[in-house]
Recover the amino acids of this structure.
Protein backbone atom coordinates (compact mmCIF):
# COMPACT_ATOMS: atom_id res chain seq x y z
CA UNK A 1 0.00 0.00 0.00
CA UNK A 2 1.36 3.41 -0.92
CA UNK A 3 1.92 6.11 1.70
CA UNK A 4 -0.78 8.18 0.00
CA UNK A 5 -3.34 5.39 0.18
CA UNK A 6 -2.40 4.57 3.77
CA UNK A 7 -2.86 8.21 4.73
CA UNK A 8 -6.17 8.56 2.89
CA UNK A 9 -7.54 5.40 4.48
CA UNK A 10 -6.72 6.61 8.00
CA UNK A 11 -9.70 6.79 10.33
CA UNK A 12 -8.21 9.84 12.10
CA UNK A 13 -10.32 12.91 11.35
CA UNK A 14 -8.34 15.78 9.88
CA UNK A 15 -9.17 19.44 9.47
CA UNK A 16 -7.10 22.11 7.77
CA UNK A 17 -5.76 24.97 9.87
CA UNK A 18 -7.30 28.36 9.01
CA UNK A 19 -5.19 30.85 7.06
CA UNK A 20 -5.30 34.64 7.31
CA UNK A 21 -4.41 37.58 5.10
CA UNK A 22 -2.30 40.51 6.23
CA UNK A 23 -5.51 42.55 6.59
CA UNK A 24 -6.92 39.82 8.85
CA UNK A 25 -3.79 39.92 11.02
CA UNK A 26 -4.05 43.70 11.39
CA UNK A 27 -7.25 43.20 13.41
CA UNK A 28 -5.63 40.82 15.87
CA UNK A 29 -5.12 42.14 19.44
CA UNK A 30 -2.10 44.40 19.85
CA UNK A 31 0.40 44.37 22.72
CA UNK A 32 -1.11 45.61 25.98
CA UNK A 33 1.24 46.97 28.62
CA UNK A 34 0.64 46.56 32.35
CA UNK A 35 3.91 48.33 33.18
CA UNK A 36 4.74 50.50 30.19
CA UNK A 37 7.81 49.19 28.38
CA UNK A 38 8.39 46.45 30.97
CA UNK A 39 5.50 44.02 31.61
CA UNK A 40 2.94 42.99 28.99
CA UNK A 41 -0.47 41.40 29.44
CA UNK A 42 -0.70 37.62 28.99
CA UNK A 43 3.04 36.96 28.77
CA UNK A 44 5.77 35.09 30.64
CA UNK A 45 8.44 37.00 32.57
CA UNK A 46 11.51 36.06 34.59
CA UNK A 47 13.16 38.34 37.15
CA UNK A 48 16.57 36.81 37.81
CA UNK A 49 19.81 37.57 39.60
CA UNK A 50 22.33 36.26 42.08
CA UNK A 51 21.33 35.33 45.63
CA UNK A 52 20.75 38.19 48.10
CA UNK A 53 20.69 40.85 45.38
CA UNK A 54 17.10 41.92 46.15
CA UNK A 55 15.01 39.95 43.63
CA UNK A 56 12.17 39.21 46.04
CA UNK A 57 12.10 42.79 47.32
CA UNK A 58 11.93 44.25 43.80
CA UNK A 59 9.29 41.67 42.81
CA UNK A 60 7.05 42.52 45.76
CA UNK A 61 7.58 46.22 45.07
CA UNK A 62 6.53 45.61 41.46
CA UNK A 63 3.50 43.60 42.58
CA UNK A 64 2.37 46.36 44.93
CA UNK A 65 2.68 49.00 42.20
CA UNK A 66 0.74 46.86 39.73
CA UNK A 67 -1.96 46.48 42.36
CA UNK A 68 -2.17 50.20 43.11
CA UNK A 69 -1.50 51.61 39.63
CA UNK A 70 1.30 53.86 40.92
CA UNK A 71 4.24 54.48 38.59
CA UNK A 72 7.13 52.03 38.97
CA UNK A 73 10.56 53.62 38.50
CA UNK A 74 8.95 56.20 36.22
CA UNK A 75 7.05 53.62 34.13
CA UNK A 76 3.28 54.13 33.92
CA UNK A 77 1.29 51.25 35.44
CA UNK A 78 -2.23 50.04 34.68
CA UNK A 79 -3.78 48.76 37.94
CA UNK A 80 -4.46 45.02 37.85
CA UNK A 81 -5.24 42.13 40.17
CA UNK A 82 -2.08 40.39 41.40
CA UNK A 83 -1.50 37.06 43.13
CA UNK A 84 1.93 36.73 44.76
CA UNK A 85 2.97 33.13 45.41
CA UNK A 86 5.53 33.33 48.24
CA UNK A 87 6.86 29.83 47.63
CA UNK A 88 10.39 30.36 48.93
CA UNK A 89 9.81 32.39 52.10
CA UNK A 90 6.19 32.61 53.24
CA UNK A 91 7.41 33.64 56.70
CA UNK A 92 9.53 36.54 55.39
CA UNK A 93 6.73 38.00 53.27
CA UNK A 94 4.91 39.10 56.43
CA UNK A 95 7.78 41.35 57.51
CA UNK A 96 8.25 42.71 53.98
CA UNK A 97 4.59 43.70 53.79
CA UNK A 98 4.74 45.38 57.18
CA UNK A 99 7.91 47.27 56.22
CA UNK A 100 6.35 48.64 53.01
CA UNK A 101 3.20 49.74 54.83
CA UNK A 102 5.22 51.38 57.59
CA UNK A 103 7.54 53.09 55.09
CA UNK A 104 4.74 54.42 52.87
CA UNK A 105 2.16 55.02 55.57
CA UNK A 106 -0.45 53.19 53.50
CA UNK A 107 -1.86 49.69 53.32
CA UNK A 108 -0.99 47.52 50.34
CA UNK A 109 -3.81 47.40 47.76
CA UNK A 110 -6.51 44.81 48.44
CA UNK A 111 -6.23 43.43 44.89
CA UNK A 112 -2.74 42.18 45.77
CA UNK A 113 -3.34 38.71 47.26
CA UNK A 114 -0.89 36.08 48.52
CA UNK A 115 -0.53 32.29 48.23
CA UNK A 116 1.63 30.06 50.41
CA UNK A 117 0.47 26.46 49.80
CA UNK A 118 2.97 24.03 48.29
CA UNK A 119 2.67 23.84 44.49
CA UNK A 120 4.53 21.69 41.99
CA UNK A 121 4.44 23.81 38.85
CA UNK A 122 5.33 20.74 36.73
CA UNK A 123 2.40 18.64 37.96
CA UNK A 124 -0.75 18.82 35.77
CA UNK A 125 -3.08 18.52 38.79
CA UNK A 126 -1.33 21.36 40.62
CA UNK A 127 -1.35 23.46 37.46
CA UNK A 128 -5.12 22.93 37.17
CA UNK A 129 -5.54 24.06 40.77
CA UNK A 130 -3.49 27.19 40.05
CA UNK A 131 -5.65 27.86 36.99
CA UNK A 132 -8.81 27.45 39.06
CA UNK A 133 -7.36 29.84 41.66
CA UNK A 134 -6.34 32.70 39.38
CA UNK A 135 -8.83 32.36 36.52
CA UNK A 136 -11.31 34.90 37.95
CA UNK A 137 -9.14 36.55 40.60
CA UNK A 138 -5.88 37.68 38.98
CA UNK A 139 -4.32 39.33 35.95
CA UNK A 140 -0.76 38.70 37.13
CA UNK A 141 0.73 35.70 38.97
CA UNK A 142 4.16 36.20 40.59
CA UNK A 143 5.94 32.95 41.54
CA UNK A 144 8.79 33.49 44.01
CA UNK A 145 10.85 31.41 43.24
CA UNK A 146 10.90 28.98 40.29
CA UNK A 147 13.09 26.57 42.26
CA UNK A 148 10.70 26.50 45.23
CA UNK A 149 7.68 25.91 42.98
CA UNK A 150 9.46 23.22 40.94
CA UNK A 151 11.52 21.55 43.62
CA UNK A 152 10.88 18.07 42.17
CA UNK A 153 12.21 19.11 38.76
CA UNK A 154 15.78 19.14 37.48
CA UNK A 155 16.44 22.68 36.20
CA UNK A 156 19.07 21.32 33.80
CA UNK A 157 16.78 18.69 32.26
CA UNK A 158 15.03 19.56 28.99
CA UNK A 159 12.27 17.06 29.86
CA UNK A 160 11.65 18.44 33.34
CA UNK A 161 11.77 22.07 32.20
CA UNK A 162 9.49 21.16 29.31
CA UNK A 163 6.86 20.05 31.83
CA UNK A 164 7.28 23.32 33.75
CA UNK A 165 6.99 25.42 30.60
CA UNK A 166 3.93 23.48 29.43
CA UNK A 167 2.32 24.28 32.77
CA UNK A 168 3.14 27.97 32.39
CA UNK A 169 1.71 28.01 28.88
CA UNK A 170 -1.50 26.40 30.16
CA UNK A 171 -1.89 29.06 32.87
CA UNK A 172 -1.42 31.89 30.36
CA UNK A 173 -3.64 30.36 27.67
CA UNK A 174 -6.51 29.39 29.98
CA UNK A 175 -6.54 32.48 32.23
CA UNK A 176 -4.92 35.32 30.26
CA UNK A 177 -2.63 35.95 33.24
CA UNK A 178 0.88 37.29 33.00
CA UNK A 179 3.15 34.84 34.84
CA UNK A 180 6.27 36.30 36.49
CA UNK A 181 8.96 34.00 37.87
CA UNK A 182 11.67 34.98 40.33
CA UNK A 183 14.79 32.96 39.54
CA UNK A 184 18.55 32.78 40.08
CA UNK A 185 21.48 33.25 37.75
CA UNK A 186 23.81 30.39 36.89
CA UNK A 187 26.77 29.51 39.05
CA UNK A 188 29.30 30.49 36.38
CA UNK A 189 27.41 33.33 34.69
CA UNK A 190 25.81 36.35 36.31
CA UNK A 191 23.79 37.46 33.29
CA UNK A 192 21.68 34.41 32.37
CA UNK A 193 19.05 32.43 34.28
CA UNK A 194 20.20 29.19 35.90
CA UNK A 195 19.28 25.85 34.35
CA UNK A 196 18.30 24.59 30.91
CA UNK A 197 18.35 27.09 28.05
CA UNK A 198 14.72 26.31 27.16
CA UNK A 199 13.51 28.29 30.18
CA UNK A 200 14.89 31.75 29.33
CA UNK A 201 14.18 31.10 25.64
CA UNK A 202 10.48 30.68 26.41
CA UNK A 203 10.22 33.84 28.55
CA UNK A 204 8.72 36.82 26.72
CA UNK A 205 10.54 39.26 29.00
CA UNK A 206 13.77 38.80 30.97
CA UNK A 207 14.62 41.24 33.77
CA UNK A 208 18.13 41.03 35.21
CA UNK A 209 18.84 42.23 38.75
CA UNK A 210 22.53 42.97 39.37
CA UNK A 211 24.90 45.52 40.86
CA UNK A 212 25.43 48.77 38.96
CA UNK A 213 28.03 51.21 40.28
CA UNK A 214 27.69 49.88 43.80
CA UNK A 215 23.89 49.65 43.89
CA UNK A 216 21.48 46.86 43.00
CA UNK A 217 19.60 47.58 39.78
CA UNK A 218 17.11 46.00 37.42
CA UNK A 219 16.98 46.18 33.65
CA UNK A 220 15.06 44.50 30.84
CA UNK A 221 17.61 42.27 29.08
CA UNK A 222 15.51 40.75 26.34
CA UNK A 223 11.89 41.23 25.29
CA UNK A 224 9.95 39.87 22.34
CA UNK A 225 7.74 42.88 21.75
CA UNK A 226 9.69 45.70 23.35
CA UNK A 227 13.09 47.23 23.91
CA UNK A 228 15.68 46.69 26.60
CA UNK A 229 15.86 49.32 29.33
CA UNK A 230 18.83 50.93 30.95
CA UNK A 231 19.77 50.03 34.50
CA UNK A 232 17.31 51.29 37.12
CA UNK A 233 19.25 51.51 40.37
CA UNK A 234 17.77 51.23 43.84
CA UNK A 235 18.77 50.78 47.45
CA UNK A 236 17.31 48.37 49.98
CA UNK A 237 16.46 50.63 52.86
CA UNK A 238 16.23 48.94 56.24
CA UNK A 239 12.96 49.45 58.14
CA UNK A 240 12.59 48.43 61.77
CA UNK A 241 9.20 46.97 62.62
CA UNK A 242 7.44 45.73 65.74
CA UNK A 243 9.08 48.41 67.89
CA UNK A 244 12.55 47.49 66.68
CA UNK A 245 12.25 43.80 67.50
CA UNK A 246 12.42 42.87 63.80
CA UNK A 247 13.39 44.51 60.55
CA UNK A 248 13.01 44.18 56.80
CA UNK A 249 13.82 46.27 53.72
CA UNK A 250 11.99 48.40 51.19
CA UNK A 251 12.99 49.36 47.67
CA UNK A 252 14.08 52.99 47.27
CA UNK A 253 14.86 54.19 43.70
CA UNK A 254 18.19 55.97 43.43
CA UNK A 255 18.11 59.65 42.47
CA UNK A 256 18.87 60.28 38.83
CA UNK A 257 16.34 57.63 37.80
CA UNK A 258 12.97 58.64 36.45
CA UNK A 259 11.13 57.95 39.70
CA UNK A 260 13.32 60.10 41.96
CA UNK A 261 11.57 63.03 43.60
CA UNK A 262 12.94 66.27 44.97
CA UNK A 263 11.59 67.90 48.14
CA UNK A 264 12.07 71.38 49.53
CA UNK A 265 13.15 70.05 52.94
CA UNK A 266 14.78 66.79 54.02
CA UNK A 267 12.52 64.26 55.70
CA UNK A 268 13.18 63.76 59.39
CA UNK A 269 15.76 64.94 61.90
CA UNK A 270 18.50 62.51 60.83
CA UNK A 271 18.36 63.62 57.21
CA UNK A 272 18.44 67.25 58.31
CA UNK A 273 21.50 66.70 60.53
CA UNK A 274 23.39 64.82 57.81
CA UNK A 275 22.57 67.41 55.15
CA UNK A 276 23.71 70.27 57.40
CA UNK A 277 27.00 68.48 58.13
CA UNK A 278 27.67 67.77 54.45
CA UNK A 279 26.88 71.40 53.60
CA UNK A 280 29.30 72.56 56.32
CA UNK A 281 32.09 70.27 55.11
CA UNK A 282 31.52 71.21 51.48
CA UNK A 283 31.88 74.91 52.29
CA UNK A 284 35.24 74.06 53.83
CA UNK A 285 36.14 71.89 50.81
CA UNK A 286 36.61 68.83 53.04
CA UNK A 287 36.54 65.49 51.17
CA UNK A 288 34.10 66.62 48.49
CA UNK A 289 32.80 64.82 46.49
CA UNK A 290 32.40 61.85 48.83
CA UNK A 291 32.63 58.12 48.48
CA UNK A 292 29.62 56.33 49.95
CA UNK A 293 31.69 54.95 52.83
CA UNK A 294 32.98 58.42 53.73
CA UNK A 295 29.47 59.84 53.58
CA UNK A 296 28.22 57.11 55.91
CA UNK A 297 31.00 57.98 58.37
CA UNK A 298 29.92 61.62 58.20
CA UNK A 299 26.32 60.63 58.84
CA UNK A 300 27.23 58.39 61.78
CA UNK A 301 29.18 61.24 63.35
CA UNK A 302 26.08 63.46 63.69
CA UNK A 303 23.19 61.02 64.12
CA UNK A 304 22.03 60.45 67.68
CA UNK A 305 21.37 56.70 67.95
CA UNK A 306 22.62 53.69 69.87
CA UNK A 307 25.74 51.94 68.58
CA UNK A 308 23.58 49.01 67.47
CA UNK A 309 21.35 51.18 65.26
CA UNK A 310 23.66 54.05 64.28
CA UNK A 311 24.86 52.59 60.95
CA UNK A 312 21.33 51.61 59.94
CA UNK A 313 20.09 55.13 60.70
CA UNK A 314 22.99 56.58 58.69
CA UNK A 315 22.13 54.39 55.68
CA UNK A 316 18.46 55.39 55.90
CA UNK A 317 19.33 59.10 56.08
CA UNK A 318 21.84 59.11 53.23
CA UNK A 319 19.61 56.95 51.00
CA UNK A 320 16.76 59.35 51.69
CA UNK A 321 18.87 62.37 50.73
CA UNK A 322 19.96 60.61 47.52
CA UNK A 323 16.39 59.62 46.67
CA UNK A 324 15.13 63.18 47.13
CA UNK A 325 17.92 64.72 45.09
CA UNK A 326 19.78 66.57 47.86
CA UNK A 327 22.80 64.42 47.03
CA UNK A 328 23.72 63.64 43.42
CA UNK A 329 25.81 60.67 42.29
CA UNK A 330 28.47 61.47 39.71
CA UNK A 331 29.35 59.21 36.76
CA UNK A 332 32.27 57.73 38.71
CA UNK A 333 30.09 56.76 41.67
CA UNK A 334 30.93 59.68 43.99
CA UNK A 335 28.34 61.74 45.83
CA UNK A 336 28.11 65.51 45.87
CA UNK A 337 25.63 68.15 46.95
CA UNK A 338 22.97 69.22 44.50
CA UNK A 339 24.04 72.43 42.79
Amino acid sequence: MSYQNEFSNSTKATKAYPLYTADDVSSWPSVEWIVDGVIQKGTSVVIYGESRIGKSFISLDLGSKMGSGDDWFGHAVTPVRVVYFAAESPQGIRNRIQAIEQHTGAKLPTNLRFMRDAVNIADPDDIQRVIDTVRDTADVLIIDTLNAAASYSDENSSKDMGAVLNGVRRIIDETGCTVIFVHHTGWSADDRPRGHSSFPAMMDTRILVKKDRGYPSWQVKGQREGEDTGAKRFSLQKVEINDGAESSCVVVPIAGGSAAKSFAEPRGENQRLVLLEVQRLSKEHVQAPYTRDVLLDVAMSVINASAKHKRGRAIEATDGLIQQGFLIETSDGLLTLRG
